Request: fold
Amino acid sequence: MEGLVVLDAILEKLDARDVVMVACVSTRLRSCAFDDSLWRRFCARDFGVSSLVAPNGEACLSFKATYELWNESFGMYPLPLVKRTKQCWEGISSWLATNFPEAKDTLRKGASEAELKLVEDTLELKLPMAMRLLYRFCDGQGTVPRDTSEHRRLAPLGIIGGYEFYDHVVNVHLLPLDRVVVETREFEAALGSVKSKRIIVAASYYAEKWFFLDSVDGQLYVGSNNVSINGEAFPCVPHTLIRPRVDDTRDVPQDALLLWLEEYSRRLHSGMIQVRKFRKARVINLFPEEPPSCSVAITNGVKVRASSVLVPEVSSATGDYCYAYSIRMSLQPEGCLLDGVYYQSCQLYSRHWIIKSKDDVVADVNGEGVIGKYPLLLPNGDEFVYESCTPLPASPGFVEGSFTFVPGRLTKPEGRQFKVQVARFHLEVPEYIF
Reply:
């Protein structure tokens, strides 16, 4: 018995291909090599597979058969990269299933090698390996409407999400391969340039915002306000993390698209990015919801949360940035406490903003209300949320300030005015741009 345990431990350290060869040596080795518990561990180790399910979703009779089918489908890629890509998609899909099932339903089944080859031939370029694997597991979103009646339902379902301020609305969808080809060709035509090495992989349903993967350097970019003029763009992932090619020291490449989606999945699961109601529809909202990216201050029972996002599509990569910011205010359950007295409501009267770019004050704003509104806050009521934007000549910068409230209502004040702090929140170009 002890000998079998030792053999099993040795076989587990081998590649699956070597185990099959070892099985030919003796009956005893064959018995150990074909033990299904060993192949169960191989499935988990190499592919992150823990059940008897083939890549196409069909049931298998054994873990050895399961391994063979997964290896047949993905054995041409480095297995650590296959497992990592699979886990990335599982993380995003599981979050969507719980928090945004209507968006999860738009995810398409994986593309075939033949479909990927057709894209390469059509665009006359080589798709990065990690991108190929991402599309093998999921061919983007099926959110292109067949008729206009479907547009309203599908438009808010972009899995990369977005933001809004004034009449500027962004909601980014991950494109299926057929749309990748169409959008990439249209982008090339707009630039009027020679064949581009950039592949458009995600785009907004509303305001024009494009993400494109460079097939040479492996970086993911998002277009600036000059993208249709000269192709100017912001990198979306730290350059130091990208390994576009295999060499003697690195046998597993990784491009920015995989890194970007992995970071996005982490933010979803941490609660930094959440689903919120927008114009009667649910959407993924990119304004950070958790500290330190979201500032929080409570004054006299009034809680104010604030955060910002870079708006690359109306910014320049060489300066003149634009940031959208989200302010959320609510009243604590016990109400508003002022001068030792609790009030069951308070209403906003005015605001004061100080906006700095590096060390320079670029705006000192005083005004009544917010976006023309004077929110009335009640205990246990919904947060009042509003979004706006500000230009910034140079990054980084920050915003801080205060709101003036009155206890009771503006039409019937019950006490003196008081100021509510808005804790400083930063305006900066982030390492990851979504």
